[in-house]
Amino acid sequence: MIGDVAQGATTIPPTASPEVEFISLSHLNPSTELEPVASRGIDLPYFRRYVRALEDAGYDYTLLPYGSGSADSFVVASAVGQLTERIRPIVALRPNTTFPTVGAQKLATLDQLTEGRAVVHLISGGSDAEQARQGDYLPKERRYARTSEYIDIVRRAWTEPAPFDHDGEFYKFDGFGPGFAPYYSPIPISIGGQSDEAFAVGGAKADIFSFWGEPLADLRTEIDRVHEIARAAGRTTLPRIWVTFRPIIDRTDELAWQKAHRYVTRIGENFQRHGLGGQRYRQDTPQNVGSQRALAFAERSELYDRALWTRTAAVTNAAGASTALVGSPETVAAAILDYVDQGASLVSIRGYDTLADAVDYGRYILPLVRQELAHRRATGRRGTLQAEHPGNYGADYAQYATAVRP
């Protein structure tokens, strides 16, 4: 059924999202996985150029990542808010680093400064070693329980009209509030992860649930799982689904595959040589279930569905979001629509040549996806993009994928 669109099916599946919004990730300097730059600082002219490029390209959100050795995500998000008029900054926040009443205050302040654009992505922590760098020794299986309590507190801090006390498993305080309010409504809360604990908390409480790029059938199963948990919790509004990819595009599928093989060789060499992204302590089996799943998919096959490539995950030990979509802009846009058809309404795309890719995606991919969704709204039927650009559902694509080897 998933491949029906390659055969010309025009019926919109009942799981399809009627909308999609695009997310990128903000980069602070020109360093990339292809061309590492030995810097831990912010290149301000580059950062300004990058954020403005996202706005000009038509992205809806940008994620401000967080790590023990990176820039502070709140401060960077505030800068993004002032450098743009429309983009919504997503603050990556670890509950162990910011007390929940303070986190609520900081997020509401950002929301006021950006006139209602703030979003928060809560990171419970997938690596004991990384958590310990900032003094967090809570076992991994308890970190999502802390996140659950954190969500309850920040939401109450945003809405409670009178002072309140709290005495929970992880946090205790007396007489807090009323807290500083968001611009006009509670701030959307995103959660990601593939552990049982992540699903339990995210399904019951998150506004957004985040996945890395997976094969379509596997992702559909995971979406069903999140939504079943949400319904069991009595929710009538289900979490939005966020999926992340690292597209590699060129004018044709064949040229894109030539680029992809050049890229993966350089990326693999750089990870081995430089330990990019602090990955030296992650050379063994990763602790987080998301990375374990990505590596399992890569071991099973390099190529899935229309355009999903897993070799980029294999060479980086699945260090963060690393699965690629490979092909022409039309093929990659069609592949993104396959995920929209499975229920994704938030799609994060960021490349390996960061600034150039962000510009190219805005120029060549976002308009194609939005044009197709506009066609669906107007006609109640699929357009022709997915049928005309079959990618791996066609005869030649797999040959391109395997023809060029480093």
Automatic annotation (TrEMBL):
Key word Oxidoreductase present: yes
Gene3D superfamilies, per the entry: Luciferase-like domain
Tree of life domain: Bacteria
Record-linked CDD domains: Alkanesulfonate_monoxygenase (cd01094)
Listed Pfam families: Bac_luciferase (PF00296)
Domain Luciferase-like: 40-345
Keyword Oxidoreductase among UniProt keywords: yes
Keyword vocabulary terms for this entry: Flavoprotein, FMN, Monooxygenase, Oxidoreductase
PANTHER family reported in the protein's UniProt record: ALKANESULFONATE MONOOXYGENASE, ALKANESULFONATE MONOOXYGENASE-RELATED
The protein's name: LLM class flavin-dependent oxidoreductase
Native source species: Dactylosporangium salmoneum
